[in-house]
Design a protein that fits this description.
This protein is an alpha+beta fold and 283 residues long. Helix content is 19%, strand content 27%. Residues 210-258 form the FHA domain.
């Protein structure tokens, strides 16, 4: 069973279904959990063959209405999200510099249903000073903000000033290489493959554009009453993009309602009640 599925099952049993009621807003706990996983992947830093360090201190920024609705449960929700991050890190063989913490904060610039995730690496040493925030990376939505890591505690290997040979791009201070999945080998310069995954089924993208919708004329048909006949279109390229085609319910990309967005490997697209994972890889 996947980490996110187990997280959902644990959440369902909390507070006699209280979370099911408060999460009738557009922000869903599994979306936040997925964003925390991506934050770990995007900020993973390889120290050596046995150690890949990821953030352990997370802040989930919510709109004022969503924050007011969820803040009474922030402690329990934060604990559940931290447990999910711990399970995911174990699965990916990531390590932490200190205890995992997830906090909720109000952000007045966000509309209802939207959120952001910020993260940083905090050492467990009580004398460690928290770092000042770095400039935003420019990505919108989950994972759009990063912090430089705190200095390593005594006895820990020093944080490299540049990525070690074969190290993963996308660590602190290093931009993520387009189309490269965390932990994957560096691109070999070959042809980029594109595909999407819907309910465990892979659909290869062999043309420059791919139309998704409920119509039998769509390139990929999605049998979902919340999906329009021609709902959206994926265009492959550098970078790949997704465009809403005037659908009734719109699209959500990595937690953000939008009409057009840039896609990266692992981007999560929601149309109606259907989740689509966009993938790309070299070779």
């Amino acid at each position: 069973m996947g980490v996110l599925k187990k997280f959902e099952q644990r959440l369902e049993g909390l507070v006699n279904g209280t979370f099911a009621k408060v999460f009738k807003s557009e922000v869903q706990p599994v979306e936040i959990a997925g964003a925390l996983q991506r934050e770990c992947d995007n900020n993973a830093t390889i120290w050596n063959r046995e150690r890949t360090v990821v953030p352990n201190d997370f802040i989930v920024e919510l709109s004022a209405p969503d924050y007011e609705r969820l803040s009474p449960y922030s402690g329990q929700l934060g604990d559940e999200l931290a447990g999910m991050v711990r399970d995911y890190a174990k699965q990916q063989r990531y390590t932490f510099m200190g205890p995992i913490k997830v906090h909720l904060e109000k952000a007045d610039d966000l509309d209802t249903g939207l959120y952001r995730v910020r993260s940083r690496t905090l050492a467990s040493s009580t004398s460690q000073q928290a770092p000042a925030p770095a400039a935003p990376s420019g990505r919108q939505g989950p994972g759009g903000y990063g912090y430089p890591p705190a200095a390593a505690p005594a006895g820990a290997p020093p944080m490299p000033s540049a990525p070690p040979p074969g190290g993963r791009p996308g660590g602190y201070g290093y931009p993520q290489s387009a189309g490269q999945r965390p932990g994957a080998a560096p691109a070999s310069g070959g042809r980029t493959r594109h595909w999407i995954e819907i309910n465990g089924t892979r659909h290869q993208i062999s043309r420059p554009t791919l139309v998704l919708g409920r119509s039998t004329e769509a390139d990929v048909r999605i049998d979902d009453p919340g999906v329009s006949r021609r709902h959206c279109e994926i265009r492959t390229g550098t970078p790949s993009t997704i465009q809403d085609l005037g659908s009734t319910n719109g699209i959500v990309v990595d937690g953000q309602h939008t009409t057009r967005a840039t896609l990266r490997d692992g981007s999560r697209i929601v149309v109606g009640s259907t989740t689509i994972i966009y993938r790309q890889a070299e070779g």
